[in-house]
Amino acid sequence: MTDTAPSVIVEQRGRLGVLTLNRPRAINALVPDMVDVLQRALDRWAGDDSVAVVLLTGAGERGLCAGGDLQGMYRDACDGTLGSVDFWRDEYHLDHTIATFPKPIVALMDGIVLGGGIGISAHASHRVVTERTSVGMPETRIGFVPDVGGPWLLARSPGELGTHLALTAANADAADAIELGLADVQVTSDRLPELEAALETQEPDAALARLACAPAASSLAPQRAWIDAAYTGEDVRAIVARLRSSDVEAAHEAAAAIEARSPTAVTITLAALRLASTLPDLRTALDHDLAVSTFLLGVPDMAEGIRAQVIDKDRSPRWFPPTLADVDASTFAHLFA
Fold it and tell me: Is the dihedral of CA 317, 120, 118, 99 positive or negative?
């Protein structure tokens, strides 16, 4: 991709509208102009009878989309400006458009799919993973919380699997993405060109029925017993204590992962998941995501987390407050009233 290449390639192949995220060096991370281009294309195609199916894919070999504009979030968090709020508002509107689009949208979740990448793919009608897929909501690593409807999706995962993924910021492979309810079907990566060609003449259900393969067994599903037992309730400290007291080594690893994340972020994430399970629809959930995201711009951990992971890359964030016991829930109670 050259500096003058479009960040999103919009094209029509017969009855198929194709949207290709085109920032491969950044693993197609979303920036504001990309959201605008995607939104305008979908608004146009919604009423265009010549487009029957939409395909969403990413350029390059590394992944569909690595998330959102962390550099912009960092600047806003440091400067006290609100440009990210406008970006989130537009991004969440796009996510809702995808979820409610009147025609099938096939999202190719090949390679890395993180954060905002889940927002534009896991709300689609047909969600395709491959053997290279690695999906995740890594926000608690950077002092942020899952957004883009992530709490809505993960709260509807089987048992407490979504809670486990959100609090630990772990990644999931193709089989686990399907188990979590973030994807529907697996196609081997070498058959993706064949799938794209088939969608020019066939309905997605027919094309996927022919080209899909059986996914490997989920690694998360057999762990439901200890995960469901440990992650119940609304108190992160109690969850960590149950994980620590488990006789399962993976539970101890989960506890260590949660304690390494932003204490404020994991506390708010759990509250967001519990609230999302009670909300009536995705639109309401996205509105709540925007309120939480806006609040976190003023919390020190978001700038610190992005600094440690993206800016200085020392991987040593200094969280404030530093422990779960020090988190004052009254400072964000209004978000969940």
Answer: positive
